[in-house]
Amino acid sequence: MSDELRSINPAPTVYRPGQIAVAHDGQGLTRGERKTVEEYRTQMAVITAQAAKTVYAEQMYSRMVEKIHDTAVQTLTYIEKTQDNTKSAAVRVFCEREKQIYMYQALEMMTTGGQRIHDEVGRSLYPPPKQGWFDR
Fold first, then answer.
1. Which residues are paired to 24 by β-bridges?
2. 8 Å CB contact between 110 and 72
């Protein structure tokens, strides 16, 4: 189990085997009750995993933004240094346009990366239903 999953406290346990197992005059759980308990366990696992996935996604998004920012500052500083140290008007115009294009591309990469992370957070943890021969 990952650290992200361990760091999230699970929901309080509602189901206790001893309480439900004797619900019918000492008889065991009915088939329907067993299915309900199994579904409950599945849902608790999905909720816990989804929360961990969301926390992890936020951490990765933050790292991505920081890296893009740091790289942008370095790149723009380099371009501006070249722009400031030249006497050529053509080079200065080129550098100005280069900065604009770079900033646009960096923002687009950050937006696209963020959207892909968002898409993964929203994707269901339940496996897709199996298709029967008639669904193919």
1. 27
2. no
Q: Is 125 helix (H, G, I), strand (E, B) or coil?
A: coil
- Compute CA 3 distance to the chain's CA centroid, rounded to the nearest angstrom: 15
Spatial CB neighbours of 121, under 8 Å, sequence gap ≥ 6: 53, 54, 57
pLDDT, position 16:
52
SS3 at position 27: strand
Give the Cα-Cα-Cα angle 92, 77, 93 (nearest 5 degrees): 15
Alpha carbons 105 and 119: distance in angstroms, whole number: 21
- Of 84, 74, 80, the C-alpha closest to 106 is 74
Q: What gap in Å lies between CA 37 and CA 35, rounded to an integer?
A: 5
Question: Would you state the structure tokens that stand for residue 34, as one six-digit string?
Answer: 């067993």
Query: 111 falls in which pLDDT band (50, 70, 90)?
Result: very high
pLDDT in tens, 29-43: 788 888 998 999 989
C-alpha 20/C-alpha 36 separation (Å) is: 11
Instruction: Kindly report whether the global pTM for this prediction surpasses the value 0.90.
Output: no
Cα separation, 91 vs 98, whole angstroms:
10
